Amino acid sequence: TARQKHLTFLEYSAGFDEEIRQRYALMNDLRLALAQRALHIELQPKVSLSDNRLIGFEALARWEREDGSRVRPDQFIPLAETAGLISELDQLVVELTCEAIKQLNAAGIDVPVAFNASSDELFDPDYFDTLIGTLKKYGVRPEQMNLEITESRAMESYEKIAPQLKRLIEMGMAVSIDDFGTGYSSLSHITHLAATTLKIDQVFVRQIGESPQAAQVVEMILRISERFGLNAVAEGVETLEQRDLLLAKGCRAGQGYLYSRPQRLEVLIDKLASNTVF
Ligand code: C2E
Ligand code: CA
Ligand code: CA
Ligand code: CA
């Protein structure tokens, strides 16, 4: 714009400094919030598409600051990654997930709860032992959890973590490849895939009715999952039309606003105490 053209270098760099300063302040706030365990999780139900029955949950990290404002995960997760705070954050989420599982069980609800792990941290040789140690500490069985691997560049050397993932699967934990069909979580890993589940990314689900290409990607992922004996879960199911198209293509599980937004555990337990069908 005209105004931008007239910015002097000094004005420009002042704005730039301000941006860096804000980022730095947010980073410090996040570090403090983590130290105080001030983050929480919300759970989003996963359902069987044919009969709306509850089959699991996904735990999603939430950060509400002291002034009540919320920072979105697509802001603070990348920030945690660059600030070297992601393994601390994900460890907190695993602990909160274990606590949630105990509370769900106490309310008579026993379905697996998924948590997200950035694939970078899976390369930490201590990651899996820490995870198993945390489960033991809380008295949670591996079948009660589901590890969702979010894609990153580290997926390129997926073979390196495959043995540990296989170990988790042998213990009974589900392992999902998140956002399947996008970016790095591509077909090249399929031959040495150590997973139980592929999650169809919401960009394809959103366009399944309008875009023949998106519909084809969904079909392809469903065929791959069948061929390799994996489960498939569709993300971001928002409409009945999307649900029906997914069912017609043979997808049996999904999650999305059609069923429920991610919600605090207390709210969900109240709703589910009487009925586990959405
Ligand atoms: P994701 O793992 O792909 O999670 C799904 C995202 O889609 C969530 O966003 C969820 O709220 C949103 N979503 C679910 N259903 C619908 C729908 O029907 N429509 C639309 N438009 N969106 C839907 P959220 O909670 O903002 O999380 C964003 C991303 O942040 C996650 O994507 C995940 O990659 C990351 N993330 C969240 N929590 C954690 C965590 O504890 N650890 C790590 N490493 N990453 C996390
Ligand atoms: Ca996920
Ligand atoms: Ca996803
Ligand atoms: Ca995602």
From TrEMBL:
Keyword Phosphoprotein among UniProt keywords: yes
GO molecular function, one term: cyclic-guanylate-specific phosphodiesterase activity
Superkingdom, taxonomy of origin: Bacteria
Domain EAL: 23-276
GO annotation, biological process: phosphorelay signal transduction system
Entry keyword annotation includes Phosphoprotein: yes
Keywords, alphabetical: Phosphoprotein
Protein name: EAL domain, c-di-GMP-specific phosphodiesterase class I (Or its enzymatically inactive variant)
